[in-house]
Amino acid sequence: MESVDVVIANRLDSGAPLVGEVSRYIISAGGKRLRPALLLLICGALGYRGEQRFNLAAVVEFIHTATLLHDDVVDESTLRRGRATANESFGNPASVLVGDFLYSRAFQMMLDAGQMRVMEILADATNVIAEGEVLQLMNMHDASLTEADYLRVIRSKTAKLFEASARLGAVLAGSSPEIEQACADYGQALGTAFQVIDDVLDYDGDASEMGKNLGDDLREGKATLPLIAAMQRGTPEQSALIRHAVETGAAAELESIVAIVRQTGALDVTRRAAADEAQRAIEAAQRLPRNEWSEGLLQLAAQLLLRRN
């Protein structure tokens, strides 16, 4: 990861100082760096030790950072990772344009790999992510969403870059189609579980630990799985209250809605859905060669369910 950080720092150089300032602001805020770490773990498990693993790990982090910059503008977010968002600090125009820069820089860097398959995976991933963002926008304030609708969005918006990161490791290692698919399955399942747990924490987390405002999803009119499950399991009155809040984005009843989500067992339902995805990731990792790196993949999937921020 230190080598990845060196690549990131070097490739943030630009003739426009604001690019580096905004990019470093959001990247230096920390974060879990799961996507580049996943790519490195897959490369380790499959025996690839070349320098391109650092370059492509930086690429997926740039793509992820670009999506964060754009997301926060669309969602009008003010807090991320415990401090003001880039759009709050630098304004929406700077956030959007620097996000565009990071996307284009990522595509410059992926050329260094010299493999059309790498380009294909990342071009497909960025397109699917953008499609997921549009789907989520269309679904805002729609209280009739089903669990299938919800999963379709997060598998596009969040899990796709996890899937691409894992698949890239297999491509760099020159793996068989079967191993590449196992890596892709692992990444998709891990990314899905990660987002489902993230949605649990919006109603069962600690704002100071999470680094974002609790209830943000409700304010933005997002019908996430905890709310979908609570509407299915609650009384008609409880369901109507949640439905109204989703449709209007009114957070005035947030305390009551959090209580309903907890009382109806919706958080348990959501955690079980995350556990199913984590188990799917574990089963995919078991199709890889057994070594300390693949053991790390197994541990990552298992410990994801314990995260509190």
UniProtKB/TrEMBL annotation:
Q: Where is the signal peptide?
A: none
The protein's matches in Gene3D superfamilies, at most eight in alphabetical order, are given as: Farnesyl Diphosphate Synthase
InterPro entries per UniProt: Isoprenoid_synthase_dom_sf, Polyprenyl_synt, Polyprenyl_synt_CS
Q: Cross-referenced SUPFAM superfamilies, in alphabetical order?
A: Terpenoid synthases
Specify whether Transferase is a keyword of the entry: yes
So which cofactors does this thing need?
A: Mg(2+)
Checking Pfam families in the record gives: polyprenyl_synt
Keywords, ordered alphabetically: Magnesium, Metal-binding, Transferase
Give the record's family classification.
Belongs to the FPP/GGPP synthase family.
Q: What is this protein called?
A: Polyprenyl synthetase family protein
Recorded source organism is Caenimonas terrae
